[in-house]
Backbone:
């Protein structure tokens, strides 16, 4: 009984009654008013070849590959609904650091290709990648006359890395990502599993990685959990004790430190050069790239990377 | 000033000058369809927050409709094997002619008229209905069920809306006491910009005219989503352009010009002080363009009605309303107002 009454009340308060009350024909006039308002407001068209819109950093234009982060784990290729990712790799062995220890084996990437003629831009590969080797970039101008050219091989996918943008600022109302704060570890006891495998863990979170290349300061909010974090140089050195020992969580920026304090540094040209020399090297790289006919943006990105590498005195990724 | 007027009068007395004016009216009104088509593209685009054509011709795509015409000429002319070839080919002439003939009696100025017939309005409404014969021919000749459905819808629509259209015009004829278009305009001198005793007739006339030229929200006979451009499903290339587009826009302009003449004082200026002979075509053009714009505005505001709603609206609302309007105007005729 009581239920029926409630229902009755609801019907009484429904906005339908208000619509009934309006005068005949006002809806027609309202419609005309709306279209006139839209007629007088500015159109939203971007006249594409003449003007180009600035796309947001998270636009799904094309997928870039950060080659040195790839561990040939094949997760992306397996998860891809279109099966448009092709990966080839082989295993290599690294000489043990000490006599009598077992040689470490690691994967080497031989081929990584995405067929954009098949890709449906779902982004599952980007999300599933555990080592942040895949990134979205807002670039979209890669149409081809020949469908086979839409299969981007490793070189083209790596070139797209130079167009990856830092992520947008968080919305003011957003709380932001929450990070686990771990207790300060005093004893250099725990080894980091990825490093001991000879794989290269990411120095930064997925968003910070492209910044590392361009040497931009990283937003502290983007620093991910610190437990598995080691510097790139340390990882190369595979001395696990050193890697965990020097990891000072929280304060440390995800960028590799200026002078990597790795005692058994295997790299050859580990000497930092002066500012002018670094710029000179950068200019050479740029001219070389332009001479090869690369895209100016790619050349500029390579120049920046070369300057940074020279400053740090490392061979750097892919160097 | 009197010298100039005198000169104008002597000029207009010359039959060759008159012929020139008549030709120019034809030569201006027909290209006007291209202009109206272009403006419609732009109005539609901006209502939808787009820009519309921007490339052809360089400046804001002014040559878009011209380019469309050239494209249509180049297209293959296809006539279905089962079609009645002669009837099929004759259709565009009929639909175009019916619409274009109405321009004969439209006064752009008291002298700027091809022929001021004594039965002007009667003639205009009569010839504007010729087009439907063309559409019916297209429907039967195409040997296509969509074409036939479209043609029959067209015929049904024309029968339904011709009645209120003529009754609304009849009210104006009652007021003017003449069917000559110039007389009708001159009878509106006391009202200048808007013939207010005919307010209801104006609304009825505009609604019926929209249905008459088969524009949304009354475009069921050519509804693309349902019957694929109705009677013109099988038409392509130039036949399609003339039979449907050109005919539609000529009829559109003709009915707007008719409405201007009947209700908005035709070539009369908005205030008596501006009544100067050489400026009269300008007032006429301004008023006609405003009506054209309003009809475009309406077209891109309302969705298409259903066929039964269309018929019900015509017979149950518009016809009784226009009959009541005739009584109303007749009553006014007894008073000194008109």
Residues:
């Amino acid at each position: 009984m009581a239920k029926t009454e409630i229902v009755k009340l609801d019907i009484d308060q429904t906005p339908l009654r208000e619509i009934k009350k309006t005068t005949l024909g006002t809806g027609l006039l309202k419609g005309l008013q709306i279209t006139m308002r839209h007629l007088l407001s500015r159109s939203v068209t971007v006249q594409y070849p003449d003007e180009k819109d600035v796309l947001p950093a998270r636009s799904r234009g094309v997928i870039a590959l950060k080659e040195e982060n790839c561990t040939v784990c094949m997760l992306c290729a397996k998860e891809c609904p279109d099966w448009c990712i092709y990966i080839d790799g082989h295993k290599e062995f690294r000489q043990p650091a000490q006599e009598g220890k077992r040689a470490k084996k690691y994967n080497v990437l031989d081929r990584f290709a995405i067929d954009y003629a098949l890709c449906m831009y779902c982004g599952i590969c980007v999300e599933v990648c555990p080592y942040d080797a895949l990134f979205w970039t807002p670039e979209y101008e890669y149409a081809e006359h020949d469908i086979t050219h839409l299969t981007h091989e490793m070189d083209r996918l790596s070139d797209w890395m130079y167009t990856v943008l830092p992520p947008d600022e968080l919305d003011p109302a957003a709380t932001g990502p929450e990070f686990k704060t771990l207790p300060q570890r005093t004893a250099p006891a725990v080894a980091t599993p990825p490093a001991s495998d000879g794989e290269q863990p990411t120095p930064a979170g997925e968003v910070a990685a492209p910044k590392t290349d361009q040497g931009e300061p990283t937003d502290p909010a983007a620093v991910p959990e610190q437990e598995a974090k080691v510097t790139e140089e340390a990882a190369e050195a595979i001395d696990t004790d050193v890697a965990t020992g020097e990891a000072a969580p929280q304060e440390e920026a995800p960028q590799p430190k200026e002078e990597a304090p790795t005692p058994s540094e295997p790299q050859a040209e580990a000497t930092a050069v002066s500012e002018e020399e670094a710029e000179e090297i950068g200019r050479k790289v740029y001219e070389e790239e332009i001479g090869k006919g690369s895209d100016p943006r790619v050349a500029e990105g390579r120049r920046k990377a070369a300057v940074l590498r020279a400053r740090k005195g490392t061979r750097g990724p892919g160097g | 000033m009197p010298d100039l007027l005198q000169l104008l009068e002597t000029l207009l007395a010359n039959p060759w000058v008159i012929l020139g004016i008549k030709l120019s009216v034809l030569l201006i009104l027909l290209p006007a369809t291209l202009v109206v088509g272009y403006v419609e593209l732009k109005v539609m685009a901006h209502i939808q927050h787009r820009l519309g054509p921007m490339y052809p011709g360089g400046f804001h795509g002014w040559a878009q409709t011209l380019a469309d015409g050239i494209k249509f000429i180049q297209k293959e002319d296809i006539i279905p094997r089962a079609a009645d070839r002669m009837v099929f080919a004759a259709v565009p002439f009929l639909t175009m002619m019916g619409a274009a003939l109405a321009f004969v009696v439209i006064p752009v100025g008291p002298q700027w008229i091809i022929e001021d017939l004594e039965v002007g309005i009667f003639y205009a409404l009569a010839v504007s209905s010729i087009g439907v014969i063309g559409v019916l021919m297209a429907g039967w000749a195409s040997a296509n069920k969509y074409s036939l459905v479209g043609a029959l819808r067209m015929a049904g629509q024309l029968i339904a809306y011709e009645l209120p259209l003529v009754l609304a015009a009849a009210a104006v004829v009652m007021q003017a006491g003449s069917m000559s278009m110039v007389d009708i305009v001159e009878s509106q001198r006391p009202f200048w910009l808007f013939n207010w005793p005919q307010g209801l007739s104006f609304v009825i006339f505009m609604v019926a005219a929209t249905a008459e030229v088969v524009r949304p929200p009354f475009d069921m006979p050519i509804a693309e989503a349902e019957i694929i451009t109705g009677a013109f499903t099988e038409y392509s290339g130039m036949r399609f352009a003339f039979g449907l587009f050109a005919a539609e826009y000529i009829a559109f302009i003709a009915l707007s010009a008719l409405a201007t003449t009947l209700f908005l004082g035709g070539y009369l200026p908005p205030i008596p002080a501006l009544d100067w002979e050489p400026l009269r075509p300008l007032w006429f053009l301004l008023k006609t363009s405003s009506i054209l714009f309003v009809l475009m505005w309406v077209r891109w505001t309302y969705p298409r009605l259903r066929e039964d709603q269309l018929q019900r609206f015509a017979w149950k609302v518009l016809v009784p309303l226009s009959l009541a309007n005739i009584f109303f105007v007749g009553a006014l005729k007894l008073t000194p107002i008109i």
User: Anything to note?
Assistant: The interface with chain B takes residues 28, 31-32, 34-36, 38-39, 41-45, 47 of chain A (CB under 8 Å). The first helix of chain A runs from residue 2 to 12. Residues 298 and 314 of chain A are 21 Å apart (CA to CA).
